[in-house]
Amino acid sequence: MPTGNGQVGVFDFAELAMENLTHNPLLLFIVSFVALSVVAVAGSWLRRHYPTADDEQSELLGVILAATLTLLGLIIGFSFSMAANRYDQRKNFEEAEANAIGTEML
Fold first, then answer.
1. Rounded to whole angstroms, how far apart are CA atoms 82 and 92?
2. Distance between alpha carbon 52 and the CA centroid of its chain, in Å?
3. What is the pLDDT along the chain (106 residues), one digit of tens a residue?
4. Is the Cβ–Cβ distance between 16 and 22 less than 8 Å?
5. Hey, how many other C-beta atoms are within 10 angstroms of the C-beta on 17?
6. 3-state secondary structure of 66
7. What is the C-alpha to C-alpha distance for residues 1 and 10, in angstroms, rounded to an integer?
8. d(C-alpha 84, C-alpha 90), whole Å
9. Single pTM value for the model
10. Are the CB atoms for 79 and 87 separated by under 8 Å?
11. How far apart are the first and last CA of the chain?
12. Which residues does residue 8 pair with via DSSP β-bridges, in sequence order?
C-alpha cells in the first residue's frame, strides 16, 4: 500500500507480510516450525557450552519456568474459552437463520 509520496511504508509492508502469513496456513506452519527448531538448537548449544554454575541459579530458573508455564496455561485456557463461546454463538446464529428461512418459505 503506497503512502502519500508513492513509497511503500515500513508499517504497510509489515501489515502485508502478516496478512499473507495468515492467509497461507501451510506457510505459517513452516515458518513457525523452522523458527522453533532454530531456537531449540540454539538453546541446546548454549546449554552445552555454558552450563549452570550453582544451585541458586537453578532455583531462580525454576521460579521463572513456573511463572512462564502458569501464564501459558492461562493463555491456553482463555483461548479455549473464547473459542467455545464463539462456537456457541455461531451455532445460535445458524439456528436463527434456518428458522428465518423456514418462516420465509411458509
1. 15
2. 31
3. 455 555 555 567 767 776 766 677 788 889 889 999 999 999 889 888 887 667 777 788 888 999 999 999 999 998 888 888 888 888 999 999 999 988 887 7
4. no
5. 9
6. helix
7. 10
8. 10
9. 0.45
10. no
11. 49
12. 2
Grid cell 492461562 in the structure block, residue: 74
Contact between residue 93 and residue 99 where contact means Cβ atoms under 8 Å apart: no
Query: Which ranges in 1-106 belong to alpha helices (H)?
Result: 10-23, 25-49, 55-105
Place of cell 515458518: 31
Unique residue bearing C-alpha cell 428458522: 99
How far is the CA of 40 from the CAs of 4, 48, 50, 99, in angstroms? Answer: 43, 12, 15, 52
Q: How far is CA 14 from the centre of its chain?
A: 17
Torsion angles phi and psi, residue 2, rounded to 5? -70, 150
- Exposure string for 54-83, b = 16+ CB within 10 A, e = fewer: eeeeeeeeeeeeeeeeeeeeeeeeeeeeee
